[in-house]
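Study this one:
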Amino acid sequence: MTPQDMESRIVRYGDLQPCKTAFIDAHTPGSDQKENFTIIGGGVSESPDQHVHISIEHGFNIGAAGQPPKCRNSLHDHRTAEAFFVLSGRWRFFWGRWGTAGEVVLEEGDIFNIPTGVFRGFENIGTDYGMIMAILGGDDAGGGVMWAPQVIEEAADHGLVLAETGKLYDTKKGEALPDGVKPMPLMTDEELAKRGEPTTAEVLPNHVARYWDMVAMADKTPCKVIGETGLLKDKPGFEVDFITRASATDTKHSHKRPSVLMPVKGHWRVEWDGGSVTLAPGDTISVPENLAHCAVPSMTGEAAMYHIVGTDDPAGLTWQG
């Protein structure tokens, strides 16, 4: 495969196209400055304005959220697994019906594997614009987002209405629900009672992995981060490995499914039969199935990278077991 053939499977950080109207809280004060990015797969955006960089099915979706300081993403849930790693900045994740059940602060390189069945939100608590990268299970990412009732109610106060079809309508622009289409119903008290309220102590051991711990564990071979035998044991429809300079190898290998490489630190040279390319933090490359390739740091200094590949396990953990 030539470098020109691979070009359409590479998304540079500087070429990412943001959407500021992706979700129902796009007009809500405190959330109205966030940017949503869909890098691989259709994602879960509720807006037709969302640009999809790579539409090839991988068995999972890759997206990102960029936010200035003090900007937050409102409480929501997905029907499939959701994992985040911090590319830049300092982020507070919180969860529960009202976002008060527990919280954790993540720094650059840290990863958080969030099961379904619990509302979650996050905010940039750093001093500069920050970016977190997201992995969502499934090609259709479970059919959209489920919002905490208060998020939908507050959004309506600021002109945005979510239809039962999952599409957003902006009344500030004169838009209205089409005839025969109802608003997205709020979750009932019975449905809300079934949702998890885990404490921070319950979440940290099995769902959060710290960058420097993974660096230490990847001293000879890549650290298995998410997977049946991973540091964060789960079967969410994808596996995540963490690779450092110490565990990188120039021996080429291939996968039966498309795989994704996402540098966190340093510059990486990805080589394959027919070409090579150098990636920087924030860049993403989709490697075709059965293509022999390898990835090695191209410069001295700190170097770390996440590697994602799909599996046949679409469910993932929930707080209900």
